[in-house]
Amino acid sequence: MSNDIILKSAYSLKRLEVFRKHLYKSTVLNAQKDFCIYTTGSYGRLEACEYSDIDLFFLADTDQTKFSKISEILIDADIIKACRQMKLPEFSGDGEYLVVHNIKDIYSELGSREDDYRNFFTARMLLLLESRAVHNQDFYDQMLSTTLEKYYKDFHAHTKDFKPVFLVNDVIRFWRTMCLNYEHNRNRKFNETGLTPEEIQNKKNELHIKNLKLKFSRKLTCYSFLLSLLCSKKVMKQADILEIIKLTPLQRLEKLSQNDKMKNDINELISLYFWFLETTQVEKTKLLQWISVESNRDRAFESSRQFAKIIFKIMIETENQDNLMYFLV
Fold first, then answer.
1. Of 37-41, 225-229, 323-327, the least confident
2. pTM for the model
3. Reading across the β-sheet that carries 35-40, which strands appear in turn?
4. Which numeric CATH code is attached to 3-149?
5. d(CA 270, CA 70)
6. Residues 221, 45: contact at Cβ < 8 Å?
7. Rounded Cα distance, 112 and 109, in Å
8. How would you classify residue 150: left for phi > 0, otherwise alpha for psi between -120 and 50, otherwise beta?
9. Cβ atoms within 10 Å, residue 27
């Protein structure tokens, strides 16, 4: 593993360990057995910096663990206290996303209208694509396996030629949904009235940053996983998928770089991704000022286009074209 990836990972792991130690002090949290907390985003990908916030999801088997409203409030309070002690940024939306999801909803509503509406889809996809346990590792591991089983219900009948098409479709759907959500948010922002020219410009700059993150970190989360499946020459069992799940997006790229034919392309992807991290992992006002300069935006989005071209190039040049054609159809 490259030194840059090791350093990023080490910082994130150190901060997560401090966060876990704060959570260990919560008596109400530790009283919950069939319950886990996992982080996503830059901490889940192990590429956090001093300016990174921490994104958390709560997952429980509510048939076994009954949450009172007071228990939820006390758990939220302990988590907010831990974040403030570590000087982490405040939770977005005034903490509205600190919601306990029932694991059965995560997979029983898979593909339904409720899946998107109640945020089960996002919780499930991020669990599989870029998560890391911060409380109750054993239950978290159990939930990973339970969730993955839902995509493998037909495996026993196709052990020699099974392809995880259901899972691939859900990952692609997740990527497309994030793209559509960005467009929706952009249109909504500019329909707001009563804004000053300065406020409008600030909103534009914030959207440029979100767009850049979509085209780098969000894209890599999805496509590092898809490339790992696509480039495999064997029938992927659940244990093989779990191995990919437990790697960060950058670690997946590192593993793919062991293939000499794609090594140069993968190294270029990693180089572009670290340019993105170094550029965006700064204090927010500084980043907003940087993205407001047209030449900086031009360079940023040209880099994102090159990033996408390389991913596409790897996909179409893979030796395992049967996988690609099958997944596309």
1. 323-327
2. 0.91
3. 100-102, 55-60, 35-40, 132-135
4. 3.30.460
5. 45
6. yes
7. 5
8. alpha
9. 9
**Three-class secondary structure assignment of 176-215:** HHHHHHHHHHHHHHCCCCCCCHHHHHHHHHHHHHHHHHHH
User: Which residues make Cβ contacts (< 8 Å) with residue 292, sequence separation at least 6?
Assistant: 201, 205
Residue ranges per structural domain of the chain: 3-149, 158-328
Average pLDDT, the chain: 88
Alpha carbons 133 and 129: distance in angstroms, whole number: 13
- Helix, strand, coil % in the chain, rounded to nearest 5: 65, 5, 25
Distance of CA 62 to the CA centre of its chain: 24
Six-digit token pair at 62?
């509510």
Query: Is-contact 177 252, C-beta < 8 A?
Result: no
DSSP code per residue over 128-139: HHH-EEEE-HHH
Strand pairing report for 35-40 and 100-102:
unpaired
DSSP 12: H
Look at residues 223, 299, 236, 297 and name the one whose alpha carbon lies nearest to residue 266: 223
Q: What average pLDDT does this structure show over 8-23? A: 94
